[in-house]
Amino acid sequence: xxxxxxxxxxARVYDRFAPTVPFRYLPPRQAVRIAxxxxxxxxxxxxxxxxxxxxxxxxxxxxxxxxxxxxxxEEFRRRVPIGNVLLSMHVSRSEFVxxxxxxxxxxxxxxxxQGLPDxxxxxxxxxxxxxxxxxxxxxxxERDAIYQGGxxxxxxxxxxxxxxxxxxxxxxxxxxxxxxxxxVYSGQSTQxxxxxxxxxxxxSTVSPWRACRRRTAASVSGPKVPSTGMCSACxxxxx
Length: 239
Hints:
single chain; 239 residues; alpha/beta; 2 domains; 8 strands
C-alpha cells in the first residue's frame, strides 16, 4: 500500500473513533504546540513554548490570548506568507480599507460584494460610519460570470450607513457633481480608470493616486484590470 494511502486510512479511522477535544480545554503544553503549528507553521522553540505554557497554567494568558499573540506577531507577518494569491490580495485590500480616512460621502468604483448586498467596502473592514456610499459597477450582464453576484441595484442600509448602487461605466463619472464626495475609492475594477486632478495635491498612500487636500482618492489593483489615476473632480476639494 502506498504511504500516502496508508496515512489517509489511518487518519479516517482516527477521526472516526478518537474523541476530539476543543482547543480551549487542551492542556497548556498541547495548546501551545497546536497554536504554534497552526499559526506559525512550526514547532514552538523551547524558551517560547515554556513561557507560553507557564502563563497558560498560571492563568496569566488564555488559550485565545496565546493564539491572538501569535497571529499578530512580527514573525507571522514577516515569515508566514499567504500561499493563495487571491486570498493574499483580499487580505491586503482589507488592511488597506481599514486604514482609509473617515469620510461622510464615498464613491466606490467596482465595489459590489459577490455574496452580500451592501457592498465590499463595509465587509472589508472600513471602520467609520458614513452618510452616503455610492457603489459604481458595470451592469450585471456586462460583467464576467464570476462577478455577477451580490446586489441587483436596490439601496440598502448597512451597519455603517446607507448604500446606493449605480450600474454604468466606471470610466464615466460626469454624472456626479463636483465636490459631491469626500472619498473616491477603487479596490478592484473591471475597467482601466483615469481620473483627473483639479486643485492642490499631496502624495497619497498608493501611487499613482493623489490626495486632494484632506480628501482622498485611493486605488488598490485587483486581479481584474489595474486602475490608474488621480483625485477626481467629483471628490470634494474643501480643506
